[in-house]
Design a protein that fits this description.
Radius of gyration: 25 Å
Distance between the termini: 56 Å
Order of helices and strands: HHHEEHEHHEHEEEHEEHEHEEEEH
Helix content: 25-40%
Largest sheet: 10 strands, mixed
Number of helices: 11
Number of strands: 14
Strand content: 15-25%
């Protein structure tokens, strides 16, 4: 086989190609990259010309990868991942001798559940390091936020279907959301019907602008929406109603479970997300998981 001459391709062109392939649209990719669509289109044409292959089939709906385009995309996105990690690791090493920052994206509810009772041990792992708890982000922001160095560790709650290949992902635990109440305010039977439940305020948590238990709004006249699990817990403990809260944390909060006939507990999984190259993040995650 004749040797293939590898040209010195412009990194931006490969970065642009990955974005176009990911979005399947020049217009969406141009918005994501912050460049004009015409400049992006010309960059893709130049890349195809320099390689001597057609990477996209273009139609009115967008662009579709050719066989050659799919090969380039599969290899380029992996290479892009390690390229970003190399930059982050280099910058981290640059400040190795100084005080470093370790940034964690986590909600206040998850912090109280998984970090508060472990913080002293985590401080021992993060020697000579500032610890910063940052805003909670959602699934679609994880990869970019870790790869661009915005966070060292992201701890979030999602369904079992959550999966990302570009960063390391570790399950911390699963939470099963059931109906609970404070026995100091209510004396309830072990099991109730939905009709009986409708006599009380139902306390539930809003998630990402939508609700995991949206059907409750249509089933009951009285409900309360809270921004996070901590708010739900405070409302439940103060007798504001019957709330939906993780089964795993009922006993320590001196609450009781009431089984609602026909209700299947909502299951949510807690994930830790980090770059494979971030050894400190690995140690922190192992500490969190090791004490569940």
């Amino acid at each position: 086989m004749e040797d293939i001459k590898i040209l010195d391709y412009n990194y931006d062109a490969i970065k642009y190609f990955i974005s176009v392939a990911k979005h399947g649209s020049l217009s969406m990719a141009s918005k994501s990259l912050g460049i004009s669509q015409s400049a992006l289109s010309q960059s893709m044409k130049n890349l195809e010309w320099s390689m001597g292959v057609t990477l996209f089939n273009r139609n009115t709906r967008g662009v579709i990868l050719t066989d050659e385009g799919r090969v380039l995309y599969e290899h380029a996105r992996i290479g892009n991942k390690y390229f970003k990690e190399a930059i982050i690791e280099t910058l981290r090493k640059k400040s190795f001798d100084g005080v470093k920052d370790f940034k964690i994206s986590i909600s206040s509810s998850l912090a109280s559940m998984f970090l508060t009772n472990k913080i002293r041990r985590i401080q021992e792992i993060l020697t000579n390091t500032n610890i910063e708890f940052c805003e909670y982000i959602y699934e679609n922001e994880v990869v970019e936020s870790l790869q661009n160095g915005k966070f060292d560790l992201v701890i979030l709650k999602s369904g079992d279907e959550f999966n990302v290949k570009e960063v390391a992902l570790k399950k911390i635990c699963a939470l099963n959301y059931v109906f609970v109440y404070n026995p100091a305010y209510f004396q309830l039977p072990e099991s109730m019907t939905f009709e009986e439940l409708s006599k009380y305020y139902v306390i539930m948590k809003e998630r990402s602008g939508r609700n995991d238990n949206a059907w409750i709004k249509y089933s009951f006249n009285k409900f309360m929406e809270c921004k996070n699990d901590n708010q739900c817990l405070e409302m439940i403990k103060n007798g504001a109603g019957i709330g939906i809260y993780p089964r795993e944390y009922v006993k320590q909060n001196q609450l009781k479970i009431v089984n609602i006939e026909g209700y299947k507990p909502t299951k949510r999984t807690i994930y830790a997300c980090f770059l494979e190259s971030n050894d400190i993040a690995k140690k922190v995650v192992n500490e969190i998981c090791g004490q569940q």
